[in-house]
Amino acid sequence: MSQNVPLALFVGIPNPVLDANEVALFRETNPYGLFVGRRNLKTPDQVKALVAQFREAVGRDDAPVFTDQEGGRVQHLDAGPWPSFRSFRDFSRLADHDMDLAKHALRLSSHAMGAMMTELGLASGCSPVLDLVFDTTSAVIGARSFGPDPERVASLGRVVVDSLLEVGNLPIMKHIPGHGRATTDSHKERPVVRESRDVLVATDFKPFVDLIDTPWAMVSHVVYSAYDEEQPASISPVICNDVIRGELGYRGVLISDCLFMESLRGPLPERVRQTLDAGCDIALHSHGTTAESLAAARAARPLSQQSLERIEAGKRRLGSLKVDVRELHAEVEGIFARLPQ
Q: What are the entry keywords (predicted)?
């Protein structure tokens, strides 16, 4: 395995610290990044120490550590030390009253959440969700979405993308090319979307096209039968290359959704290979044991030159705006408190 070029892989760990076996494994295999969740995030000092420990293990001072931090139901920084952020549905409901006010509140919230992560050393919260949501959409999306209107989703999504960049946190739009037509949860089974190409282009795909300059995008584990009847997007060369890179024109970093989700089949190494072969820049192995991380690393490959260039292009867009997280969060809550009940 290459020690010079990182593997095209994010790994996960079970605990708030790396043990000696994990340190040795990451030193040997050099995965590009670490993905952390609630099980790994306890206090600010502990998170900073974990980030430093991973970076020391792989020998890169800028090795990225990601989490899921959208607001609402999906926010892994949800323990006592951190404020609780509102869901995207809340901001969309505010937009029903006043779109300008909703954008202002969402900008404040995104600045606060992004700055909080940046201060901890977390490079991204894998946000925003640009999936539409309908009456038939799987509950796995729900309040994570800005709603069914692609124009509104793109407009509010733009606020999140720009605001995160301004405070030095990496936005990742998901789940490209759209999870909203899926009626089942890709964590549990393989969803199949049977809408026509014309419908998908006019609706689900549109927010991703409107925000096509977002530095990173997470690929769904959903089958779009109008394009590929068998394979979910994340392991489909047709979707990754012909649709996302071709029709949609996306030029940023493509990372898969978590490889442990049951929409994918076969052993973990096969899932890693399928994802990278399909055209994703990076495979996401977001949790697991040391043995599973080793299996994923053995199946991965070093980042390609093109992937490295895409990663560097995203880094160049990160700003350095400093904000008071608690102050902005309180201002957002004040805006919602003044709404008519």
A: Glycosidase, Hydrolase
**What pLDDT digit, counting tens, does each position of 131-175 carry?**
999 999 999 999 999 999 999 999 999 999 999 999 999 999 999
Q: Estimate to the nearest angstrom the gap between the alpha carbon of 122 and the chain centroid.
A: 12
Catalytic residue from among 257, 281, 285, 329: 257
Task: Tell me how far apart the terminal alpha carbons of the chain are, to the nearest angstrom.
Answer: 59
Q: 1: pLDDT confidence band, cut at 50, 70 and 90?
A: very low
Distance CA 327, CA 15 (A): 31
Residue by residue, what is the 3-state secondary structure of 278-295?
A: HCCCEEECCCCCHHHHHH
CA dist list (Å): 156 to 38, 101, 160, 162: 27, 11, 7, 10
**What distance in Å separates the CA atoms of residue 193 and residue 183, rounded to the nearest whole number?**
8
Tokens of 230: 């068998």
Task: Give the pairing of strands 282-284 and 253-258.
Answer: parallel
Gap between the Cα atoms of 68 and 62, Å rounded: 19
pLDDT tens string 196-225: 999 999 999 999 999 999 999 999 999 999
Radius of gyration of the chain (CA): 19
Cα 222 from Cα 219, distance rounded (Å):
9
For residue 257, indicate whether it is catalytic: yes
What mean pLDDT is predicted for residues 220-247?
A: 97
Distance CA 90, CA 96 (A): 10
Return all residues near 223 (Cβ < 8 A) that are at least 6 apart: 190, 191, 192, 193, 229, 230, 231, 232, 233
- pTM for this predicted structure: 0.96
Active site residue 187: yes
pLDDT at 62: 96
**Alpha-carbon gap, residue 286 to 306, rounded angstroms:** 23
For 27, the token pair is 């030193």
The pLDDT of residue 283 is above 90: yes
Catalytic annotation, pick one of 78, 149, 162, 187? 187
Q: Using an 8 Å Cβ cutoff, are 115 and 326 in contact? A: no
